[in-house]
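Please, structure for the following, as tokens.
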Amino acid sequence: MGEFRLAAVARRGRRMLRARLGAGAGAGDSGNAVVEFVFVALIALVPLVYLIAAVAVVDNSKAVVAQAARDAGRAFATAESTRLGRLRAETAVRLDFASHGFADDGELRFVAAGSSCSGESLAPVVAPGARYRVCVTRKTRVPAVPAVLSAGGITTLGSYELFVDDYRTVAPS
């Protein structure tokens, strides 16, 4: 008899719980969780996607200036004369920028080997055993940020240690 009474109480409790949940205050909110989730996801994801795009633009510029510095150094080191080497280095930088869709707005500098790119610029000479550091810098604009706020953009820098072979012959400049 106790089991019957316990089962009846459980049934009555389930009925009351169903009635309360079915006609409660939350009954009109069905389906709103999806709308709220989409709204919160948009608020969180839009800045995240923008940040990823901005980092990708700057990283792409860093890769291009590093490649341009390397190509400029190799072009200079393999030239037959200093004048031709300088022209080849500048052309290599322009070609690297153009192949990635960048404007020809980079700066090519030669500094002493082992020094930083902010060091004093020097006039390189294609001579056996010569060592230089080739530096290519470029201002990169972050997308959707006005130039006033970004102070002209982020400076990206690429450098390459250049060594002219000891045993090569060089035509007089």
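Residues 11 and 81 are 99 Å apart (CA to CA). DSSP finds four helices and three strands in the chain.
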